[in-house]
Specification:
Elements lengths: L11 H6 L3 H17 L7 H25 L1 H4 L19 H21 L2 H22 L6 H5 L1 H14 L5 H24 L1 H6 L5 H5 L1 H18 L10 H23 L3 H29 L4
Helix pairs in contact: 2-3, 2-8, 2-9, 2-14, 3-5, 3-6, 3-8, 5-6, 6-8, 8-9, 9-12, 9-14, 12-13, 13-14
């Protein structure tokens, strides 16, 4: 009996996974949050819906480009070695690149037609930041990779807000800054959990440079700042639902970050990673409910 592993044929789920749908969904939700926090009763709902779909497609194209460009790195990390390009079940050739770029062009065009040029610009910049700035320019060169790369989520917020009104208000700007501050502690928590793999592959994630304990303190500083800042839109008219989501989410994320400082283990890092997702979901859900559902009854 042979010990040689037999590669199973790829299914629809594998192909769909190339586009990192979970990340694309969070990015699209950020765009929806940006639109909701800028809610205007006269805005066309289709402009918002189609812009959010465009952001989802653009984020998917960026995710696919990330896997296409990093097939060599992914192959050497246990967390990503099973990805189709990394495992060579699919060859990352130029045909894939052409398809990825075509998807991005379609998404940007959709945002332009459905909303306006600013929504299209922010949709493009979100994908460009993740695909080119983070993946190609920064990831293997500097620890600031995920700091600057965090702007991808911020551009999604701005795209959603621009679909409502090209002149973006202070609430959306604050939410975009919160997303910018959220990405580093979210990703650094994961980086602590797989720090040995980043170190062995010479990827300069912050934990590999300053150690897990110091990185945990940096994470806590980010978490505290974004948690406080997320409450600011209340001063611009956001209601109790948003306030509750921001307050509870920030408290959960902060408490998990404090626990990580006290015990910077891989298990605590994963818990903080999950807490960051809960915090973002509560924050954006609060904005969406307050901006539209509650607002429609007041």
């Amino acid at each position: 009996m042979s010990d040689t592993a037999v590669a199973l044929p790829l299914g629809a789920r594998d192909y769909f996974g190339i586009f990192k749908p979970r990340i694309a969904t969070m990015i699209a939700l950020s765009a929806l949050g940006g639109a909701a926090i800028s809610a205007d009763p006269v805005v066309s709902p289709w402009a918002v819906v189609l812009t959010v779909v465009a952001v989802f497609l653009a984020a998917g194209s960026a995710g696919a480009f990330n896997q296409w460009a990093e097939a060599d790195l992914d192959a050497h990390m246990s967390r990503t070695s099973g990805r189709p390009f990394a495992s060579r079940q699919l060859v990352p050739g130029m045909g894939w690149l052409a398809g990825i770029l075509a998807l991005l062009a379609f998404a940007v065009g959709m945002a332009a037609i459905a909303a306006n040029a600013w929504a299209a610009f922010y949709t493009f910049m979100g994908a460009f930041t993740y695909a080119v700035v983070y993946t190609l320019w920064l990831k293997r060169r500097t620890w600031t990779n995920i700091v600057i790369g965090g702007a991808a989520g911020s551009f999604a917020v701005l795209a959603g807000a621009a679909a409502v009104a090209p002149h973006i208000g202070p609430e959306a700007i604050v939410l975009a800054i919160v997303l910018f501050l959220w990405t580093p502690p979210h990703f650094w928590s994961l980086a602590i959990a797989v720090e040995d793999e980043y170190r062995s592959n010479l990827v300069p994630m912050l934990p590999t440079l300053i150690g897990n304990r110091k990185c945990a303190w940096v994470i806590l500083a980010h978490t505290l700042t974004l948690s406080v800042l997320s409450l600011v839109p209340v001063a611009y008219g956001m209601g109790l639902v948003y306030f509750a989501g921001a307050l509870i989410g920030g408290a959960l994320f902060t408490s998990a970050s404090i626990a990580l400082v006290l015990q910077p283990t891989k298990q605590r890092a994963i818990k903080n990673f999950l807490a960051s997702l809960i915090q973002l979901l509560l924050l954006l859900s609060g904005a969406i409910i307050d901006g539209w559902l509650v607002g429609s009854f007041t």
